[in-house]
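User: Sequence for prolycopene isomerase below. Tokens please.
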Amino acid sequence: MEGTALKLGLNSQLPAASLFPHQNCSFLVATSPSLSTNFSLNTRFQNHNPKAVLSTHNKTERRDAVRRGHKYDAIVIGSGIGGLVAATQLAVKGARVLVLEKYVIPGGSSGYYTRDGFKFDVGSSVMFGFSDKGNLNLITQALAAVGHKMEVIPDPSTVHFHLPNQLSVRVHREYGDFISELTSKFPHEKQGILQFYGDCWKIFNSLNAMELKSLEEPLYLFGQFFKKPLECLTLAYYLPQNAGAIARKYIKDPELLSFIDAECFIVSTVNALQTPMINASMVLCDRHFGGINYPVGGVGGIAEALANGLVNMGSEIKYKANVTSIILEDGKAVGIRLSSGKEFFAGKVISNATRWDTFGKLLKKEELPEEEKNFQKRYVKAPSFLSIHMGVKASVLPPDTDCHHFILEDGWANLEKPYGSIFLSIPTVLDPSLAPEGHHILHIFTTSGIEDWEGLGRKDYEQKKETVANEIIQRLEDKLFPGLQSSIVLKEVGTPKTHRRFLARDNGTYGPMPRGTPKGLLAMPFNTTAIDGLYCVGDSCFPGQGVIAVAFSGVMCAHRVAADIGLEKRSPVLDAALLRLLGWLRSMA
Ligand SMILES: NC(=O)c1ccc[n+]([C@@H]2O[C@H](COP(=O)([O-])OP(=O)(O)OC[C@H]3O[C@@H](n4cnc5c(N)ncnc54)[C@H](O)[C@@H]3O)[C@@H](O)[C@H]2O)c1
Ligand SMILES: CC(C)=CCC/C(C)=C/C=C/C(C)=C/C=C/C(C)=C/C=C/C=C(C)/C=C/C=C(C)/C=C/C=C(\C)CCC=C(C)C
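Assistant: Structure tokens for prolycopene isomerase:
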């Protein structure tokens, strides 16, 4: 009896599979589904003549790899947007890449699932970097690099804040409209508002003027300092600074400072004092410069297009391919092993798993490299989310409801507390095709730690999901949508365990967050690691959490790897000098 109970108890720990219902598919190796748009490669992301830049050293490395029987230049573990951008950028430069994804479709937290005629985004739904303007539209550029362009729907507002003391602020697409609305709530702080957001624009404009590639590649980095000295010095000046400290230089009103905390929290899961100024500027300005744009057919289409593009360029992606270890030879990463026992080898290995998973699970080394110890000293895993995907009757939403909302009802002190605030996206406001006629999708989420969900039997786990989800829905009903509970036609609840299981992220974490007050982005590691041949990509690399942030990490990673395998220019002497300089800078953080 006891044994049976124990087994049942263990089984009951399994989280809801409902968020990720594709798992019945058979083993897939993507073939080349036709791309709907013309295949003109984006020149900004292209390497024009890879062979012309091969150095003798790199040629030898590549020859060695071929002699050792490597079929691939690089293996990428995981097909989140970070992994896919790294893979496609490498493929565009001429590399042969193998992507191994544990799940059955690409995208990770930018994936999707369908249920009863509704098409839900798993996670990401506010898309920065998706316009046709400037240099920072990294999602548009990543798609263009594989010959794809998605139709998008402009969102007239990024988010509608519903905050304590009945403070309601709509972040309009037009910067002037947003500033007018904010200054109408805080007229005595007009000057401070203009100065703080003005500093954000200085940084954004500097970023937007640069060609974005690997900050770990000295020829590029020094070249940028030469070509754009003012912009680079501006970025270097703000690199170690945080948004909260800068806001306090200009603004005194505590409620307005709390509003800026909320602005930062929705993109960094921490307050403004802990949010790097460069990251804050990126999102606080891109939403007005390029605007937030939603892809027709849902966010999942981005990863699908990247995966198809990768295959069309002669590289491969395998699904249901769970990497359990990275194979080292003489301390160098040379391949990976799957849970099936199958092994694949390549010149370079890139991990899109979090650094905690990469170094804690995939590398069976007793001693963490010093760099990773330092990373873990400075950054902890952010909590995960409780997410509720619902189908509701359309009549419950008032006309002109915004697509994205952030709700904090009871007091500013709850901002960073688990379940303290509520995020809500209603993508059907922009794209009604995602739900059956007469219905909307509500994607609700709130921060939640894994510790709340462990050690429960199946019944208690299911019961707790129901109770907590109902409390959150009731709060939304009270604040925004009377009659919400009775309008629900479909409801799926995911917990941190669901995210851990299906996104393969330690504790289901949303990403790294600083332990204390960071020195801006100074301590954030780039893509190379202490293990020769092993690179990381994704949100535990510079510049951190966010779809556009991991896309940038993918661009940087592909550039560094391409230089290391001889597909981009490199200088081994300068490489060593820059790596030492960056190590020293990080130690100052
Ligand atoms: N609302 C939003 O806008 C929102 C919501 C959720 C996430 N996001 C963003 O998405 C970012 C994450 O993107 P990402 O690219 O870093 O990662 P990701 O977590 O989205 O994707 C990682 C992929 O790697 C796969 N994987 C992990 N370990 C593996 C293994 N051992 N073997 C095979 N496959 C493995 C996972 O299955 C997953 O598909 C987050 O930082 C977050 O900011 C945004
Ligand atoms: C020495 C050295 C190294 C240096 C020098 C100087 C220089 C040159 C520098 C440079 C730098 C750079 C380039 C940088 C860059 C950066 C970047 C690009 C960044 C980016 C970022 C981004 C981000 C962070 C983003 C994020 C986002 C997110 C997270 C989002 C999210 C969302 C959500 C959650 C949603 C919400 C919802 C509702 C409300 C419903």
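Residues 77-83, 100-103, 108-110, 123-126, 321-323, 352-353, 357, 503-505, 511, 538-539, 545-547, 550 surround nicotinamide-adenine-dinucleotide (ligand 1) (CB under 6 Å).
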